[in-house]
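Appendix B, example 12.
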Amino acid sequence: MVTGPPDIGTSSIIRRLRAAGCVFAEDEARLLAAAADSDAELSAMVDRRAAGAPLEYVLGWAEFCGLRIIVGPGVFVPRRRSEFLVGQAVATLTSAGQTSAMKAVVVDLCCGSGALGLAVAATYRRMDLHAADIDPAAIAYARRNLAAIGGHVHEGDLYDALPAVLRGRVDLMVVNAPYVPTGEIGLMPAEARMHEPLVALDGGGDGVAIHRRVAAGASQWLVPGGSLMIETSDRQAPLTEAAMTEAGLTTSVVSDDDLETAVVIGRP
């Protein structure tokens, strides 16, 4: 922690961040100053942020559902809109838990940093959490984030990553797979398209290529009455819902206008 005013001055930090296009320069300056252990470290952090590195990468953490999620270069930064998916997951687990004495088996597929699974577990503790991702960098962060709660982290391509023993035993599967169409990646904010891994952003030609693969295999892993929940956008929700319907799942869609997000839910 910086003791006393940093040599470069708080007002100087704010001016640099504003010049770099940081809309919330005052808030960012406060966070950076609180995170630095010395003036030299603070100056280096400001340099990185002014050069365009995501604030979360510079700090080493992202705030999500009131938690600090460890992140850094090479991993997707959890977005606030995904908190809606967490809320839907917790509500479903709570409702099911009222009639079951067993621990719920929860899978965070395409887990990235493990933020979704960790946030669900922070509220609903009676669960056996498994998280999986294809990206080794993401897996490294997920292991760090989920170690304290005993979460199981697996590396591989979607269901190939999961232990066979989970087949037919999953009560809830939460998925924040990439859903930006390939042709629209260039329209994303520079922080995302220039720093976050493409594998965590590119959802294929229409944005739901991975959703189709997830939906196609879900019934083999979910218990009867289990739920698959996929985050998507209002615009693409009909495509994600169609993928689930084609896979034989009964579907519903819930959305949050304030967060500009939707969750498509499928059940066997």
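The first helix runs from residue 10 to 19. The chain has two domains: 10-52, 80-267.
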